[in-house]
Amino acid sequence: MSARLSDYDYVLPPGRIASRPLPRRQDARMLVLDRARETIAHRQFVDLPQFVRPGDLLVLNNTRVQPARRFSDDGAVEFLFLEQLAPQRWRCLVKPGRRMRIGATTTLDGVRATVEKVEAEGERIVRLEEAIDPYRDGKMPLPPYIARPADAEDESRYQTVFADVPGAVAAPTAGLHFTPEILERLPHTFVTLHVGTGTFRPVQSETIAAHQMHSERFTITEAAAAAINAAEKILAIGTTSVRVLEAAEKRDGRFVAQEGATDIFIYPPYKFRVVDRLLTNFHLPRSTLLMLVAAFAGREFILRAYAEAVREGYRFYSYGDCMLIL
After folding, report:
1. Cα–Cα distances in Å, from 311 out to 6, 30, 195, 305?
2. Which DSSP symbol is given to 165?
3. In this predicted structure, what is the pLDDT of residue 120?
């Protein structure tokens, strides 16, 4: 077992980070990993239907990303609205943090905003004098490694075509490759997991088991539970779908409709109970997402595949190419 943070490191040239989406969603490259044979093949995302067999079911995350990034009226403070705690109280990330300590104020849409509390990991509890819609005129919360402001293109492209349930501050990026036409050809169902900022938080401890995941809310509908129970094999689309499927409550071995939250942290030598195959994008070094795919395919095999993807010029991270693990 690889229990050290340094066991999940790799070198990525900065030019491999995709800062823009491809002109067409479906044009991503797809690295195909066969776990049984430990082989690697180079394909295109549009080839995905060739790997879907009778009895398979794709499970996708239909969360919708909120335009949660806002600036104060004077432009001096950036807010990322994470969670509404009451009509006039929100949990937020703010920049610069040194300007927004307890008691500090600014205005949004002419409404005074006051920091009531600074939480352990730097999040602020902000009280507004009046209720406002923080998403009005907000920008898409692009991840930190996309080093540019969000623009009009991101409003549609940093969102899956099947996004339906508002609540995320990060996209379930494996789903970004799908078009309605491709999805219609494949047996599928949807679960919901509202992706939070925890997806970007670095692991601080050298012993990975000491890391604490942030909790994220999820929902499985009755229709989704029935479809999953009827499937022979599950092809999870993205690590967020994996986390729902592996964390969800089961009764008598069967999925049931439910709403809940999970802080499940999947890393080697985790034994998967539900997921048989996985489509995922490429993840950051030393990240919990890389640890999850390493648990699924084996750390050495994954790092070998990542090294080949770097050599072959694959595009990495949210707007990048994808990997199919069989």
Report:
1. 21, 14, 30, 10
2. E
3. 77
The C-alpha atoms of residue 305 and residue 190 are separated, in whole angstroms, by 29
pLDDT digits (tens, 9 = 90+) for 213-255: 888 999 999 999 999 999 999 999 999 999 999 999 999 999 9
Contact 57, 236 (CB under 8 A): no
In this prediction the pTM is 0.94
- Alpha carbons within 13 angstroms on the beta-carbon side of residue 199 total 25
b/e map 148-187, b = 16+ CB within 10 Å: eebeeebeebbbbebbeeebbbbbbbbbbbbeeebbeebe
Q: Which helix (H) or strand (E) holds 189?
A: strand 188-193
For residue range 41-58, what is the model confidence (pLDDT) as tens digits?
Answer: 999 999 999 999 999 999
Q: Which among 166, 176, 118, 120 has a CA at the least distance from the CA of 143? A: 176
| Structural domains of the chain sorted by starting position, each given as residue range(s) with its CATH number in brackets | 5-65+142-325 (3.40.1780.10), 69-128 (2.40.10.240)
Q: What is the pLDDT of residue 1?
A: 62
